[in-house]
């Protein structure tokens, strides 16, 4: 991988990936939510966060056991473990 981070041992195939990674070292959070003022390093993180302010229509991942809604499928899967008791990271 030709693009190496000067701050750590990470390397990347694309220059754009290195640029995104380097933000983690400076602590910069240039993307701010207009609703709650929370800030994010990446624009995609802000976009995903803004779904919580959009209402239930944006929350498309419904737990079939308790009816709780989630904006991301990964959050639903993590939540479903509370019903099953599964602890995959032990």
TrEMBL record:
Q: Does the keyword Nucleus apply?
A: yes
Record's keyword terms, sorted: DNA-binding, Metal-binding, Nucleus, Repeat, Transcription, Transcription regulation, Zinc, Zinc-finger
InterPro entries reported for this sequence: Znf_C2H2_sf (IPR036236), Znf_C2H2_type (IPR013087)
Q: What is its main location?
A: nucleus
Protein origin, superkingdom: Eukaryota
* CC terms in the record's Gene Ontology section: nucleus
C2H2-type domain: which residues? 3-30, 31-58, 61-88
One of the entry's Gene Ontology molecular-function terms is: RNA polymerase II cis-regulatory region sequence-specific DNA binding
Which SMART domains did the record assign?
ZnF_C2H2 (SM00355)
The keyword Transport appears for this protein: no
Question: Which Gene3D superfamilies does this chain map to?
Answer: Classic Zinc Finger
Spell out the subcellular localization from the entry: Nucleus
**PANTHER family assigned to the protein according to its UniProt record, in alphabetical order:** ZINC FINGER AND SCAN DOMAIN-CONTAINING, ZINC FINGER AND SCAN DOMAIN-CONTAINING PROTEIN 20
Report the protein name in the record. Answer: ZN777 protein
């Amino acid at each position: 991988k030709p693009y190496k981070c000067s701050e750590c041992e990470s390397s990347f195939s694309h220059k754009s990936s290195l640029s995104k990674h380097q933000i983690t070292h400076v602590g910069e959070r240039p993307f701010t939510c207009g609703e709650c003022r929370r800030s994010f390093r990446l624009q995609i993180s802000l976009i995903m966060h803004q779904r919580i302010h959009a209402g239930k229509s944006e929350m498309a991942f419904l737990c079939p056991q308790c009816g709780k809604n989630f904006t991301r499928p990964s959050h639903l899967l993590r939540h479903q473990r509370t019903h099953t008791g599964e602890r995959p990271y032990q």
